[in-house]
Each structure stands twice: as structure tokens, then as C-alpha cells.
Amino acid sequence: MNIISLSRILAFWAAKQPDETAIKHDHECITWHGLEKTTNRLARAYASIGVKKNDFVTVALPNGIEFFQACYAIWKLGATPQPVSAKLPVFERTQIIELANPSLVLGTSPEDHPKFTTLEAGFLSDPLFGDDPLPEVTARSYKAMTSGGSTGRPKLIVTTIPSEWDIDDDQFRFRQQGSVLIPGPLYHNGPFMWAMIAMFRGNQVTITTRFDAEQTLRIFQEEKIDTVYLVPTMMQRIWNLPTDMRTSYDVSSLRTLWHLAAPCPTWLKEAFINWLGANVILELYGGTEGVGGTRITGEEWLEHKGSVGRPNETCEIIILDKDGKQLPFGKVGEIYIRPKAGPGSTYRYIGAEAKSIQGGFESLGDLGYFDEDGYLYLSDRLTDMILSGGANIYPAEVEAAIDSLKGVRSSAVIGLPDEDLGNTVHAIVDIADEIVTEQELLSHLAERLVRYKIPRSIELVNEPLRDDAGKVRRNALREERM
């Protein structure tokens, strides 16, 4: 083991490879030496305005070198980065910030959040702040991620892992001092973890502003990428490129393709295995909470098509029916996971409570079953959450925004199948006898929801969508529209 505090991990790699590229974004790059020096100065600037050990710092910055600089400066003060989308409307971001109560908010204007200390994107620390090393300090939690709650309110998922890392740990199959591509948004847990852990192992990390299928292949070739993080939507967009274009790029350097965040269609996974080789493809199933999960290699998958793998060594997984009775192999039920270290050992919520049963098992809201060899298969979401392009969208959150518009009586939000995104958001809106237009509703939602949560299609109706108890028959509504 070689555990290093994240307040010192840049210094470790800067000493070994000072002039090598640490991060590349579009046409910009920064060396390990440059990253170490700029984040020392930035950390002192943050400290001068009140950031202290174990504080949260909200990071509302887009993909870019500045995002990484902010996180490492935060770690150098023993504080915890709390990333959010840079595109969040003020209304939604305010809810999250009030939960986190951070000592600093990055990437926003002062008038947006007058109760908090803020710095806008592009902030440059005063050159008078020194760039020499700071004292070593380790935060209680190295990340605090955001999730839209099933109640329509956001929650924070705060890891119990401190801000330190064993650089000899290869559980994610990263090389040391290799080349990694992360084309996803860094405020999401998966891209954040994979990008940061890759850097903890001394890898060059290449990121993109947004995902582009051909650009991804070009980066494979130009940067000799050995590890990439994708979601199935990205994989499908790559596969939908003309065959001669897809096969014209040299992808021989690729040794690991991770995919997660959403179910991968069997045909698509098989196509990637045939293209890149079964030994390259790895899939992970789990949640931001880190209570446990599964992983599966391409070789295993060919023997258990459709599976997401067997439980990893840190957890136990059981399948229960609606009465809490454990189900045998082949029977679909709700998936419950328990970390072997015990309940509460991997995370804590701010703004929500875990769904747990006796013995410390928790549900992530999925349905599935085991085969006789102990491989897990996912069937569907037990909850109403919509997976669209690898992002989690909670209907209650969208409905709350719709229902806040004057003239709307009630609404029901469902996911409809989409070949590209997996699902798209469809809103059924009961406007009774009021005059509400689709454009008026979209303008209202643009002020309250990030773009990917805004319904792709809207259906205006003049009939109640909920019964007297306030319940909505979401599955029935979806089946009717299917």
C-alpha cells in the first residue's frame, strides 16, 4: 500500500513527471508541475476567503482544467468538493447550496446566491499568494455528490472515504502513468470518480466539453488512450457512425473500456466485444452511495449474456419480494445491498433517508434476479426514475416544476423508449379549463430545471391524472402511450 493525502498527491506526481501532461481539454493542457503550482496559489486564495478543513465547496464549473484546479485546491485545504452542473438554473442550484451550506460557491455570480461567498468562473488567484507547498491536511470526505431525490427534492451523498488514496490500488484497472479519456460531465459521480482516480494513479486525463462520437475515436488515436469511461448512449452513437469512419481510427492502444450508469442493450455490448475484444470491455453496476455492486468482464458476459456480474468482495446482495422474503434463483424482485463493513460505512445523506431493511440491507430501487451461478441481471427500476443518456431524472422533481406554473392542475412525467438516449422525458399535463400553451410551459421549466430534465414531449389534457389519494398510475399511463 502507498496511501497519499490528496493534499499532497499532485506534489508526488509532479516530482516524478513534472513536464508530462496532467490534463488535456480541447486545445488546452497543463503539466503536473503547472497543476501543482497553480493549485497551491489557488488554495491560499480560497483559504483567504474562509475555506477551512471539512468544509464543503460547491463547484459549479463546466468540464475543463479549471474544474480540476478547483478540486485539488479544495483538497489542499482539507475541504470537500461538491460538484454540480454549471448549467443548473438558479432556483435548482439554490436548493442544493442550501443543503450543502458551503463556505464557497465556485462558478456563479454573487447576485445569484447573496447569502454565500461566491467566485465566478475564470477566477485567477492573486500572484502574491505563494505557490510553495501547503501543510498536509486530509478531509473527512473526498467528495459530496448531488442527486435529485425521488421526493422531488435534491440530496447530497457524502462519501465516508477520506481525501487520500492508495496509488498502488488498481481496482479500476488503471495503469500508472497511462492515458485516460473521460468524455462525460465531471459533476456526475462516474466521470468524476474515474477522472480523479486516474489522476491519483499518475495518468494523463483527457476530457471533452461535450461528447462527440468521432472526436472520441480521434482522441483514442492521438492520445493513445488505454482506458475510457463511457455510458451506453455514447457507445451507441459511436456504433452509429459510418463503418468506414469508425474503423479508420487506430484504437489499438485501448486496453479497458468501462461502461456503467445505465443498462447496455445486449446487441450493442456484443457489437463492442466483437469490435474491440472481450478482454477490453468491463461493466460496473452500483450507486453513488458505494454500498456495493457488481462488475463483469467481457469474457464472463459472453457466458452470462445480459448479466451485470457477481457481487464484489465488499458487499452482499439479496433479492426480496414485496413482502421482504428472499427469492430463489431466477425470480425477479427488489435488489438489496449491504456493505460488509456495516450500515453507514460508505456514505451519509444530507436531505434524505436511506431505504433500509433489517440487517442493514439497502435498496437502490432496482429490480432483478440471480442466475444459478450467482450472476445478477437487472430487470427494471422499481422506482419511477427515468434513465436518459446515462443521467438519472426523477419524475417528482420535474412534476414539481410543472405544477408550480399557474394554470396547471397536476402532471405526470414518464419515460418513453428512445433508441439514442434509452428513454426520453414525456410530460402529461392537466390544465383543466385554463389556457396554458406548450411554449409557456417550456419557458417556465427553463428557469427551474437543467436542460436534460426538461420534457422532450408534452401532452396537454383536461382530465385528472391522480386519484383522491393523490396517486398517479404512472405505469398505466406509460403503457397507454407505448
From TrEMBL:
GO terms for biological process: fatty acid metabolic process. Residues 13-338 form the AMP-dependent synthetase/ligase domain. Keywords: Ligase. Residues 397-463 form the AMP-binding enzyme C-terminal domain. The keyword Acyltransferase does not apply. It comes from the Bacteria. It holds the Pfam family AMP-binding_C. InterPro entries: AMP-bd_C, AMP-bd_C_sf, AMP-dep_synth/lig_dom, ANL_N_sf. One of its GO terms (molecular function) is medium-chain fatty acid-CoA ligase activity. PANTHER family: ACYL-COA SYNTHETASE, MEDIUM-CHAIN ACYL-COA LIGASE ACSF2, MITOCHONDRIAL. Belongs to the ATP-dependent AMP-binding enzyme family. This is Acid--CoA ligase.
